[in-house]
Design a protein that fits this description.
Elements lengths: L2 E2 L9 E2 L4 E2 L3 E2 L4 E2 L2 E2 L4 E2 L3 E2 L4 E2 L3 E2 L4 E2 L7 E4 L4 E2 L3 E2 L5 E2 L2 E3 L4 E2 L3 E2 L4 E2 L7 E4 L4 E2 L3 E2 L5 E2 L2 E3 L4 E2 L3 E2 L4 E2 L7 E4 L4 E2 L3 E2 L5 E2 L2 E3 L4 E2 L3 E2 L4 E2 L7 E4 L4 E2 L3 E2 L5 E2 L2 E3 L4 E2 L3 E2 L4 E2 L9 E2 L4 E2 L3 E2 L11
């Protein structure tokens, strides 16, 4: 039987831990003090669209095996959470996760989550225009079989994707699309971060450091770019170093980096359509620029 809380106002927290829920579960447009679904199994899509949660959302260890007609296992569009959202420690979804326009006042923690399905466009996580007041954690074993979209997202603290594995792409060959994203502190795509498609940061703003040390970008888009970051703004240093590897060109057209640009020991083995491994026309760097040697790139730096 379905559990339908649509448009309901609950005065006490809703706690359904370690349950086997075979019917549809929906709290669309409901209000609830807290929602604890940790460890539960869902064989139908979980519907949290426009749900208002005063405190926390807990989905740690939850398994979502049901998907809707568009490929989504979780629809949390325009959801508002007054505290933290935990989708971590064994969280698994056989379909895409949608946080389109969601608002999370605290932390979004998806550390260790496994997203094995995608929507019809090849995305495993869609979080365009999402607002997170604190940090967003997609690390410590986070894996996505499709692309991640953070178009126009705003993250008040750090974005931590260290050691994340993005093994799928959208229909255009992108693994991470974060054009216009704002990060209030550091952005970490490092410590073994891997992407099977292009990383897009066009017009993105990072208040602290951009750390891509040791990242592996194993593919490129149709124009030959593994990292496309036109007009990227970084408040502090940008590290593309310590063994970072890119199978396509790095594009930093008119990027603005407040501190150092460090690309020592980078390996750029691909080029764009014009034969460039690094294209940084009009880039501004506030401190030193430590660039790769000519021997480390596959084309002209």
């Amino acid at each position: 039987e379905p559990l339908d809380f649509e448009h309901a106002t609950l005065r006490a927290p809703l706690k359904l831990r370690d349950c086997d829920l075979r019917g549809a579960v929906s709290s669309t447009s409901a209000s609830v003090p807290a929602l604890d679904l940790a460890g539960s199994k869902f064989t139908q899509p979980l519907l949290l669209e426009r749900t208002k949660i005063t405190d926390e959302l807990r989905l740690a260890r939850a398994e979502l095996t049901g998907v809707d007609g568009d490929g989504y296992a979780l629809n949390a569009n325009a959801m508002h959470i007054g505290g933290d959202a935990f989708l971590r420690k064994g969280f698994k979804a056989a379909g895409a996760i949608s946080l389109l326009g969601a608002s999370i006042d605290g932390q979004l923690d998806m550390g260790g989550a496994k997203l094995t399905g995608t929507d019809s466009d090849g995305y495993a996580l869609v979080a365009d225009e999402m607002r997170v007041g604190d940090d967003a954690v997609l690390r410590s074993g986070f894996e996505a079989a499709g692309a991640i979209s953070l178009l126009g997202a705003s993250i008040g603290g750090p974005l931590n994707m260290a050691a994340a594995k993005l093994t799928g792409t959208d229909e255009h060959g992108n693994a991470l699309v974060a054009n216009g994203m704002h990060v209030g502190a550091d952005a970490h795509l490092s410590e073994g971060f891997e992407a099977a498609g292009t990383i897009r940061l066009l017009g993105a703003s990072i208040g602290g450091q951009l750390d891509m040390s040791g990242a592996k970008l194993t593919s490129a888009d149709d124009d030959g770019y593994a990292l496309d970051a036109d007009r990227l703004r970084v408040g502090a240093d940008a590290f593309l170093s310590e063994g970072v590897e890119a199978a396509g060109a790095v594009r930093l057209l008119r990027a603005c980096i407040g501190g150092q640009l460090v690309m020592a020991a980078a390996k750029l083995t691909g080029t764009d359509d014009d034969g460039y491994a690094l294209f940084a026309y009009g880039m501004r760097v506030g401190a030193d620029a430590h660039l790769v040697t000519r021997a480390a790139v596959g084309g002209e730096p």
